[in-house]
Design a protein that fits this description.
single chain, 394 residues, alpha/beta, Rossmann fold, 2 domains, glycosyltransferase activity, transferase
C-alpha cells in the first residue's frame, strides 16, 4: 500500500507528540516492511533551519517532499504560508494522480487540504483521510488562532463530513467528535516502541530517600503546568521536613515564568527539551511523572487522545499522578495511575508528600503501568492503521 502523509510541520522531533509519532511510525514501517511499500511525506522547510529527517531509508520506501516556506512572522504571513503549503501539496497530488491523502490533524491540514482538493477538482479521484490528533475545540483555546475559532470550527466540521475516513488518536477524541459534530471515527491510539524498554531499570532500583517527580510537556495552563507549580509551592510550605527529599523536574518548554520558577526554586530543576529518542534515558532517573492535561471547557482544556508521554511513563514502569478527567479515564484499565481531582492543587501537594514519604507503597501501581503498556506496541499500531485504510479502499 502507498500512502501520502500531509503534515504541516518541519518534522522537528522536539516539537511535540505528532513529530514523535512520525519517527516511531516510520522506523516500524522500515523494520517490518510488511504493510506499506511507499510513504510520501509532505512537510515544510525554512531557509535557516535544517532539521534532521526522522528516518533514513536506503530502500526507497520513504520519500520526503519538502515545501519551502518563508520565515516571515505575523498572523497574515502565517496564513499565507498555510495557503502556499497546502496548495502546493494538492498540486503535487494531482500531478502524481494520488489515490489517497492522509492529513495529520484536522487543523490546519485537514481543513486546508480538503479545500484545495476540491478547488483543483481532484477530490473525486483522491480519497481523503483525516487523522485527529486532538479535540480542536479543547486545544485551540491555547492557540493564537482562537480569535477565528468560530470559522475554524465551521470548516473543520465541513472537512470531517467530507472525509472518506476519520481516525481518532484516542477513545475520548472519538467520543468528543461524535458529541460535537456527529462525526464517527475509528480509533488508532498512540503507541511506542516497547523494545526500548526491554530490561529497563526497575523503579525499585532508584534511591527511595531522594524522589524525583517530573512534569514532561509544554509549560502552559491547559497542560496543567501552573497547577504543578502551585502544588510545589504548597508542598514546600506545608511539608518542610520533606522538601530536601524530592526534586521536581521540568522537561519541556513554554511560558518563561514557569521556566524561571524551575531554575530558581531550590528543590526544582529545569531540564528543557529532550529529543524523544533520548527520553528513555531520562525516564530511567525519575520515580514519578505527572499527567495534568485539562479536559473541561471551563478550565481551558488542553486536548485529548492517548499521550505519547503517558505511554512512555507506563512502559518505563514509573508511577503516574494524573488529573481525574476523561482524558485519563478513557482507558479500559484504571489501576495503573493515581487520580487527583482536576485543579485541586492542595490534593496534588498531598500526594507529593505521600509519594516522597513512602514511595514503596506505590510499587504495585508502577508494575501495573508497565504491564498495561504492552497493549500499545507500535507494530500493532501500524497494523491497525493499515487495516482501516485497506478496508476503506476495498
Amino acid at each position: 500500500m502507498e500512502i501520502n502523509l500531509i503534515f504541516f510541520s518541519n518534522l522537528d522531533s522536539s516539537n511535540g507528540g505528532v513529530e514523535t509519532w512520525l519517527r516511531l511510525f516510520l522506523h516500524e514501517v522500515l523494520r517490518g516492511r510488511q504493510y506499506f511499500h511507499k510513504i510520501n511525506i509532505y512537510y515544510y522547510t525554512t531557509p535557516s533551519k535544517q532539521i534532521p529527517l526522522p528516518a533514513d531509508d536506503n530502500s526507497n520506501i520513504i520519500r520526503y517532499i519538502p515545501i519551502q516556506l518563508s520565515e516571515k512572522k505575523g498572523l497574515f504571513n502565517n496564513f499565507i504560508k498555510l495557503l502556499k503549503f497546502h496548495s502546493n501539496v494538492a498540486k503535487a497530488l494531482k500531478k502524481t494522480h494520488a489515490v489517497s491523502a492522509l492529513s495529520l490533524g484536522s487543523y490546519p491540514t485537514g481543513i486546508f487540504l480538503a479545500f484545495f482538493l476540491n478547488l483543483y477538482g481532484i477530490r473525486r479521484n483522491t480519497r481523503h483521510y483525516i487523522w485527529l490528533r486532538t479535540t480542536l475545540s479543547k486545544h485551540i483555546g491555547t492557540h493564537t488562532s482562537r480569535i477565528f475559532s468560530k470559522y475554524i470550527f465551521f470548516f473543520e466540521k465541513k472537512a470531517l463530513k467530507d472525509a472518506d475516513l476519520v481516525i481518532s488518536n484516542g477513545w475520548d477524541t472519538r467520543d468528543n467528535y461524535i458529541r460535537e459534530y456527529n462525526v464517527p471515527s475509528v480509533v488508532v491510539p498512540n503507541a511506542i516502541n516497547l523494545s526500548t524498554y526491554t530490561n529497563f531499570e526497575d523503579v525499585r532500583q532508584l534511591p527511595a530517600n531522594k524522589i524525583k517527580i517530573a512534569y514532561i510537556g509544554r509549560f502552559f495552563e491547559a497542560k496543567g503546568a501552573h497547577n504543578f507549580v502551585s502544588a510545589i509551592k504548597i508542598f514546600n510550605s506545608h511539608y518542610p521536613g520533606l522538601v530536601d527529599r524530592v526534586t521536581f523536574s521540568f522537561v519541556g518548554w513554554g511560558e518563561e515564568s514557569i521556566e524561571d520558577f524551575a531554575r530558581t526554586t531550590p528543590n526544582c530543576e529545569f531540564v528543557g527539551r529532550i529529543p524523544n529518542y533520548k527520553m528513555h534515558t531520562y525516564l530511567a532517573t525519575i520515580h514519578c511523572g505527572v499527567a495534568l492535561t485539562k479536559s473541561g471547557d471551563d478550565t481551558g482544556g488542553g486536548g485529548s487522545g492517548v499521550s505519547n508521554n503517558l505511554l512512555e511513563l507506563m512502559a518505563a514502569g514509573r508511577l503516574i499522578l494524573a488529573f481525574d478527567n476523561i482524558i485519563f479515564r478513557q482507558f479500559p484499565r484504571q489501576d495503573f495511575m493515581i487520580y487527583v481531582k482536576e485543579n485541586d492543587d492542595n490534593e496534588l501537594a498531598r500526594y507529593f508528600s505521600q509519594i516522597v514519604d513512602n514511595f514503596q507503597q506505590y510499587y504495585p501501581m508502577a508494575d501495573n503501568a508497565r504491564s498495561y503498556a504492552m497493549s500499545f506496541s507500535i507494530n500493532e499500531h501500524v497494523a491497525l492503521l493499515h487495516q482501516y485504510l485497506a478496508e476503506d479502499t476495498n
